[in-house]
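FORM 7B - TANDEM STRUCTURE REPORT

SECTION 1: FIRST PROTEIN
SEQUENCE AND TOKENS:
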Amino acid sequence: MVKGINIDAVLDALDSDFTGFIKKEQIKVFYETYFDRPVDLQSIEFAILSVCGVNSSGKCAREKFIDVITEIDKKKSFEEQLRWDFRSLDRDGNWLITIQDAYLLLQSYCGNAFNLTSWRNFIHARSFPETKISYEEIKAFITSVPTGKPNTEVDIEKEGVALAQVALNSELAFFRELKTFEENKIDKRAENPIKNRNERLTKTAQRYLKILNAHGIEAMLYDKGYNSSEEEELTTVTARNRISTKDLFNILNRKYEYIRESLISDMIRRHVGEGMWMSMNVHEKKQRVRNMTIVERHLRKNGFLDEIANLDGAQQRSPYNLVNLIGEPIFAVEIHLSEELQKRSKLKETGYSAEEIDKKLLEEAQKNFDNAPCAYSQILNELAVRWKAEKDFLWSDLRSVEPQLLKSSNDRLKQYLKLARQFCRARLDLRFNSAALAVGLAERYQSYSSKKLILDRIRQEKLAYERLSERRRGDTPTLSQMDELNMTFHDENYGIVDLQEVTIQALEQKHAHERNIFIEMLQGQDSLSVRSTIRKMSTEERQNQYTLLKMKRRKWRESSDEERIAGKKQNYQILQEATAIYYENAKDGKTNEREVDVMVTVLVELQYMQDQECERFLTDIVEKSNKELIDIRNALLRARQEELLDNISSLVLKTDVVRTNEEIELVKALEDKYDMLKEKLMLDALKMQVGDAEWAKLSERERQARLLKMKLEERKFRNEGKHDEVARLLGESIKNHEHLNELMGHNRAVYDQQLKQRLARRKQLIIEGNDPDKIDMNEDALPESVLTDSKLNLLGDLEARFDAEKEALLAMLHGAEGQAISERERQAELLRLRLETRKGQMEDRFDTAAIMLGLAERNQAAANERLQGDRERQEKLALKRLAERKARKGQKLIIDEELEPEEGDIIGWRDAVLKEMEKKHCMERELLLQLMHDDENEESSLNTLKIAAIKMEESKRQECLVELRGNYDTVIKANEIDREEILNILQEAALVKYASRKRKIEMENGTVDDDHVYASIMADLQIRHSKESEEMTLQIMQYSIEELMLLRAKQIEARQDRIAANVVNVVTKYEGAADDDHILDALEKKYNSLKDKLLLESLISQIGTDKWMILATKDKQQRLVQLKFELKKFLREGRYDDAAEILGKEFTIKSNLKKLMGASRPCYGRQLKERLERRKLKMLQGLDKEEESESEIEEILNENDSSARDVLMDLDNRLKEEKEALLARLHGADGFVLTERERQIELIILLREARSAHQESNFNTAAIQSGLLERSQVATIDRLKYDRHRQKKLAECRMKEEADARLSSVSQNAQYAEAEISDLERMNLIQMQDSLILVIETKHARERKFLIDLLSKEHDDVVMEMTEIMSEDERECKLQDLLTKLDVTS
């Protein structure tokens, strides 16, 4: 009975818990899968009852499984025979037979069991006893148990005669009615010829008019007549290159027509019964649907909506209403989304976490979705209402002065193509539920990770369940049904709109075909046995098999067209097995879910993937030309015909497909990078196998021959899945290499994921008020087993890393949330890959190339977000480079010169700039090693200088470095650069830096050798090179060809003149408590605090002061942090308009930045310097200087208020100006060298300014206070003209804040933290100084508060009168007396 399969494997798969019993639902799945025909649960229950007995409880014992399947098949065969006999009696083909025929049919099938009592009860129980009998009624009678006594043949014959008489009387009555109808019809025949003639004339005139408009008068003269069928309207097929309003509404109408047809089809199906429907041929089904559609359209157009309820099947009930299935119309989606967001915010305010909110909303939505049954008649009426509402919205939007959706012709085209896609979906899903769900989901953007519209996530699951069920019922579209969608073009010059529409159809057809095959892989005949085999594998075996399948799939996909077509079956088998692995892995994580639920989850993932491909496609298709569209459509058709199944492969094997020439170029660059690494590794292995001496004797041709042989063997073993052979190919000596992850770090995808997690933790720490710098930026360690195994196969590790990076690259290209990267970003990524490859090629060995590439992959992260382990890798890379230089025994590196790119080749010029920059970096690294490492013998002058540098005090060393930096700048600014002088300066600076760094490392870690000191300094240079490379890669996309030519020339000049700017920056950089990084960080903190105050004010103005006050502190902080991260991102990218949007379009400050803060610090310094020079000049001229000395510095202020954008730009410009001036001072500009003490003072001042800006309550006071602190306020001569006004304004603000705080019973002084100096032993000097300043500031704050309290008190009137009548001298004397008393009291 059941042949060709392993019964034991099937039983193991069905009885996975080994209970010894098979459930009826599992038997249903197996039967429908194996026999490929539907069976109902009632038939299975009868079979189990007859085979296993009454105590079976609906379960089948394992040993009775075959018998039950046989019994089910017998019953199905019996039903098949009954169906054929019934059809032979069905004269009209409408699955109804007369009562007399039904009597004879039942009598023949029941035999002696036939009973007249049961027959009469059956007839009288019908609603209309005299009407014809359906197949379902016959089937129900036969399966029921007869009641009453057996009848004699005479009784049975009498009943037959009576039925014949009834049938005769019925036919006679019908004949009389027909005769009356024909007599009435004769009277109208005279009118018909005239009416028909008028209709023909009207149609002919319409046809001629359309031909004239479309093809001109010549086509009308040579027209041969109308040959189409009478049921179809004549339409003129013309090439469409733009979308008209008529086209838009036509496609909308067609979408709803097909949804309505699928609904009517389901109504008829439910009315006549599943069995009768399945036995109808395609023509019969279409005819019945067409007839009812005509009736429904007539009733709807004439407003007889109540009559729709009387249609066949209209009273049948659907488990879901229309809104649950298809969703809200396009114009109501935002309303629904805002309601959902309001629910989320309310739940959040009550204390629910994000996960709990998501779960609660999902449960609520699921409950509402499942508990909304609805009659089909109501759905038809709601569908008509929805169609009218959507049509009215589009029409009003087209006519609106400020349209929301259809703003331009391009928008109309996009909307048309979206509707065309929805129309395709309505045709490709045959059942109403799935068609409505598919169309509704196509109306809105779908994303698997999106939290928007939680109902759409439920709809995706319902759609997947419906599609799985339809496959078992045989309701999935066939290839021929899909091909019915294809448009037929009547002219070679068809329009671009036609091409766009047919291309979308091809894409939807491909997706439908992929889904059908994927469902077949989940439910087909082979699925159970394959899954059973996979289930028995261990985790490691599954992973190995998964890797092998991935390699086989890639090899098949990259083969020629002929090979792919020949190996189509192989591709299916690969994906079948991969699907089984994917399914079992998904099932392992969901132990309590049913098999069908796991299948739904997996299918939903494929649906999301296809939806996102459609969204990308709809975005790109508008920009394509006719030729490109034809090529794309042909590629889509080939993909379906050849069954490439790329989306299935992307899902189950995590592969992505290279789709365009641009993507091919990027992937090729990535392959070149990893091919370079493999070649380095193989060369290292060959060197170790033959020995360094023998390798040196080989010619370059012999080396390349051996390398080629190893490459071919590696490729062969890898394609065959022989991983051990690949590992053995490199030899035993290569095992001494470190693990690939230790050299390169995690791949980019893993690193990006870790970085996102750390940023999320940092954000959470900020919200909680903790220090965000507490986050450990080290990498997550790999399991020891992984490290051990991977050491044996570095080539395999490289292959796996390549696959991961390729997937990440293609995912980035194809975009997240439907937004793919721009062409500019793609070119930047291409430059980055080529730059990394070039960097690797410049290294001598595999390990140094691997470390360098791993570091280069993480250049894009900000300095405080890079992994701490990367610093160790930088030092390890420096040590290896030092060892390689020693091995070269001082031989200089040869740097080849490159030819200029062709004129107009901007990509070539970008690449040329990066090449020259890398050559410059190579020269600088070589120079630094030369400066520190060469001539180390004890008698050399350099060694003497090194000893002298070691004996210096640290402060003297830092002063020496600053002085050397000044000397270097002087030489660089000269007309002719003295290379020898630059080399001497760098030599001395490098040795002083060596001594300083050696002392620092020894203080931290104890004794250290010279190589590690050199490596530490070299690591600084490498990090500086990485930053310069990343900055250049980002900026280079903005340059023109002329600018690129100039930039390349500068790089070449810097290399040839050996200016070594990066080297001098590294070796002369100050090292101490107040180094450059700490000072600049303090400066940025001040401006960040000002931006935070600005952001806080905008947030309060948006929410409202009253609502803000009632928010919890955590909620306030969370909202502020979220906006802060967005604002920081936009400002970093220079997107000031987007940054201003965060603050609010209407947000302004009642002043401007210069009026609040005054001139910037550098500008103020220049003004003071100019005044001093004028005073000196007047003194020399003998003029009076007193008038100017008593006046303040003039200011020119703008009285206008500033917008949010202006304030943000002014803050950034002010920061940039101050930072540049500060760096110039730190690096000894104008010959002025900052001592260590002066650096500490500079840092303390900036820390105070940053803290003061943070402690002020609003932006205005923070800005005023920061500006005043930047300038000395001791002497009047040093003030700006309006500084006194600023002090007054600041005082007014503080008094108002204190008064408001007093009213709210909150002291303003609470914002100043209590200064505590604890654990002095752990504080450095800077921290102690800063703590002392904090104590003084706290004292000042209390004094201000005390004074405000005194001024706010009500004083005695007598005292006030006495004070008023006092003279100025008397008041002064009184103040002196009070001061004396105060001193005595103190």
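SECTION 2: SECOND PROTEIN
SEQUENCE AND TOKENS:
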Amino acid sequence: RREEVRGAVMDAARSIITAHGEKLSAELMQHLDKCVRELPNTSEADPVRQSLVVLMGDLAKHMDKDNTKVKEVIEKLLLALDTPSQQVQESIANCLASLSSTIKPDAEKIVSKLMDKLLESPKYSQRRGSAHGLAGVVKGLGIPTLKQLGVIQELQKAIRDKKHYQHRESALFAFETLCSMLGRLFEPYVVHLLPDLLLCFGDGNQYVREATDQTSRVIMANLSSHGVKLILPSLLSALEEDSWRTKAGSAELLGAMAHCAPRQLSSCLPSIVPRLMEVLTDSHSKVQNAGSMALKQIGSVIKNPEVQQLVPLLLDALGDPGNKARGCLQVLLSTEFVHKIDAPCLALIMPTVKCALEQRSVETKRNAAQIIRNMYSLTDQKDLSPYLSDVLPGLKQSLVDPVPEVRAVCAKALGTMVKGMGEESLQELLPWLLSMLKSEGSSVDRSGAAQGLSEVLLAQGVHHLEQLMPHFIASAQDSTSPAHVRDGYLMLFVYLPAAFKEEFVPFINDAIPSILKGLADESEYIRDSALRGGQTIVNHYSDMAVEVFLPELEKGLFDDNWRIRFSSMQLLGDLLYKISGLSGKMSTESEEDDNFGTEEARHTIIEALGLERRNWVLSGLYMGRSDVALLVRQAALHVWKVVVTNTARTLREIMPTLINLLLGSLANRNFDKRSAAARTLGDLVRKLGERVLPEVIPMLEEGLRSQELQKRQGVCIGLSEIIQHTSKEQVMLYLDSLLPTVRSALCDKEADVRVAAAQTFDSLHSTLGHRTLDEVLTPLMNSLSSGEEGESEVALDGVRQVMAVKSNVVLPFVIPRLIKPPVDTKALILLCSAAGEALHRHLSSIVPALIRSLKDQEELESAYSVVLCVQEEPGPSILLQELFQAAASGQVDDGAARLTAMSFLLVMCEKSPANLTEHVPQLLAFTIRALNDPLDAVCEKAWLTLDAVVKRLKPKELPRYTGNVRRALASLSMRDGELRGFALKGVGPVLSILKEGLITGTPDEKEESSRVLVRVIHLTPTAVLTGRVVMLIAGPLIRVLGDRYGWQVKVATLEALVELVRKVGMAAKPFIPQLQASYLKALNDPSQPVRVQAMAGLRELVPLSPRVDPVFNELINGIKKNEEMAIRQTMLQALCGILESSGARASEKHRSELLDILVALQGTAQEVNRIESAKCLGSLAAHLTPPEQFAGLVNGLLDRREADWAVLQSRAAGLVAVVRACPTRIADAVGLEERAIDGAAAYASSDRVPVSVQGIEAVAALLQHVSGTKPSLIQVLSQCLESESSDVRLAVCQVCTDMHDASDPLLRAILPKLLHATADSNSAVKLAAAEAIGGMLQEEKVLQRCLKVVDNTTGTANQLQEILRKAKATNKYRQLNN
């Protein structure tokens, strides 16, 4: 009744059959068959019956396949598959597999029957049994049966049946049993079943999902490593599908892989767990749950008892690394592992560690690295190797973390990995570390690489270090390498000693030179790395450092490079602290001579170093307190205070050694060492006073007589320090020896000694005052004039050196002697160059003396140094005023002096570093005026100075100085001449200012620049204004004219362009098209001044233009279309001028068209346009080539039949213009002259004043140009003088003013009436009459002739004389105003 009893009995029976079945098969089969038949047909007997059938199946294995009993047994076995017992069903399946030879003929029938029951039976046990039977049959017949009998196709169809869940469940049963029975033979089909299996994980039926789970477990448990490789990519790629069901199924199937064999498990878990971690963050909750369950499945197969307890923590950390990883790692670190960590454990631990390495928390990264380090002692290396590629990037990143503690733990972890896994597994690590060692980025990267490389080399063994050490040392010392490369290799000496400890001892001697060289490097971070390396050696090998390192540090204390001295001082301090047991970190902020050392430390140092070496070290340390470098002084003072117990006592103990060092340093070639020794000497004098002076001063005097330059220089420096730190009374005691010593040193043949002696003089003067000047400088000044050439030069340099340090005192003493004639220019120049700011107060006397006394170009060039040394205000102001005064031709008649002063100005503006911005207006004004100097050489220097001033200014600053240029040019007293400087050198500097003003200046600056350009063009020769200069002027002007600026800017720009074209003529040819278009456009401007300038420009430009037709076209169209009176008037005026100069070049078509337009304008209502059109007719008439056309024009002008007075006025004005323009043609034409005379007389006699005025002008024109004695014309003028209209009388007077060579009849008729008109009631007529008389009689011969033809009475003559006198006075006044 009990199942376990039945099982035991069943196992025993099967064992008996296995042992004796072959011999007793018949008997046993008969007996078993009998038992089956005798069993009652009840449910209680079913288990016995099923067991008997199984035994019969086992027995059938030993019987002949042709035995009929075997087939019966097979039928009974197939029926027994319905037994609801998995053990029975599995046993039957095995029996069927063994009976394959008997089954084979009926295989298709059996398989079909099993498939039908599998898919269609409603009972679970029957379907389950059919699956086992099918698997047994397939196993017996062979794997090809699946394909031959279409089993797989039927099962795939069933698993995809969406309507009947039993079909899907049964298919899964079949796959499970097939995989279980066939094992790895079924692997090829597993890959094809995966998609269906993944879908079934998300099936809506619970039974199907349970069957899927069981099937996946069996599949995974039977996979080989090759099978894992086949299905794993498909499962992992399924996690990236869009369908959540597929992703969930894949996650569950991946979780089922936890049931793989241990070997396969260790190879697949490193790939599975990271992907499952990604699933935990999926947007679909069921996918997340699937991933979580999969991880739990993996955790469920962990056998390590310590890790089993941590599985929940590990899973939480995988799900939320940011919040849970830290706590999980802490628990892991605190757990004591007794059992080995297997692959499933690592599958959860290593991804957690990987995530932790990616966190920002310092503690988390440190703990993660520590866990990696521990793992290599708790697990097999083959299980860890798959995780190398995952954790190594995080370790590398943490190795360059800013926190040193993290870098240290990561470095040790890398070392452990190399030691545990071997070099072969991490072949790329060493090249990466070496590349990071040379990283150009942060020093943190190089430090981490150095630390990691040290630990890796330690893991590889000292023999690897022996191979690489020569490369490390050579790279650290290679001065051609970049600084960051040397820094990286120097950092190795910080970490290698700490890693290798005693094993690094053989390499210390080789490493020290690299460290010392790094201490002197210009790069600060290299010096820091070298210092840390030295400190590491001192701390780890203090006993050895005394013998090995101390000699190098002693040399470093007196090295020429202050950085080496500073670093050597620090390392020496560390060594002394290590020997004495004192702490160098204590604060030493107190009085200079306070000490913190102890007697015990003193004895320890003496014992370790020996007395002689201790004295030598402390002497160097004490001298370091007076080093020229502040950092060295601070470091030496700190070390001294820490290790010395009593300063005074220690100085007495080391005095002999210290004095010897001081004397040697005073004679050293290095200036810094001599200065430090001198300061130390002064410090000794200050501390010990009278006890050392009697010994030191004689030694120094003797040293000054040495043949060694450095020793004499050191003596001077030492004397300076002694004088500074000694009381005046003590100095006075040794004065008799000090004064000659200083004087002698100032006259030393070596310049360096003289420089040092000047410092001694400074110290002595500060103590003794004016007596030093008399005792020392007076003999030197006497040597300047009385000594030999070599001695005087030395003495001069001595005074110059003294001047350099004490100019405020020395300059007033020597200047009066130097400027006294004859002036020693060489001495004056040298001393002034060294005077500094004290020179400013004496410039007013020095500069004139220099200018007067310079004899040649060599002296002049040497004197430039005086000008260049004047840099700070008020020096430049004073100097400029003196130079202006000397260079002004009005005050200094000597041309050489002016040239010298201008040369000084040029050098000052070219090379002086002084800020001359506030003096630019003065410089511009002065140099521009100097361009008109009588001497060409002065003009050239002035031009160069002006150019230098302009070049000192930034382009954007130039426009502000346009006004200064304008005022300077206006101040030149030359009305029509050309400026000499412009003629010699051109207009470059001035043009630079004006051009910048035109291009970048404000509208006001543009206007002013244009107006100044007019003046510049006027003052510049035409030969200079050609080629490139024309382009530089015209280009900016045209651009300004094309922009939208006010009329003032346009007028000034047009004026400059007109003046330029007038000056250069055909040189402006390249710009004619642009200018022509600009002028024509400006003719339409609303502003009259703009139009007037445009008209003037066209009159100058058109004669130069190769084609005039476009101009006539524009003017004709403008006159036709423009109805505004003022604009049309300007166009008519422009047309008149162009016709006068270029009318002959106009085409016949344009002449005819113009003739029609101008004739038509005679009837316009605007009087000014009528008059202007009439003038144009006169200009056009001169170019009407057919005589009949000309005659027709004149006849038209003489036609008086028109009733409108305005037309008559216009015709009369046209007649005036034609007569003035073509008098010869009128005279030559038959009958035309008489008609013209009659017409003019008629117009003059008109009752309309405007017509009469124009007629009077026509009469005057005929009298002047055609017929000067025509009685009718004279009569008309005479009659008009008696007209009632004052305008008519005024017109007669005005036309008579221009008749300078009037005929006798005209004088006889007009002059009396003009005399009468001088008393006219109208003041305008009265004045005009007087002017007319003056104009007609301005020549003496005309006056005499007049007196003959007029009534020659005394009153008339006197009246004429008085009128002429007034007229001449008026004309002279007008000329002056103009």
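SECTION 3: OBSERVATIONS ON SECOND PROTEIN
The mean pLDDT is 76.
The radius of gyration is 61 Å.

SECTION 4: SIGNATURE
Preparer initials: ____
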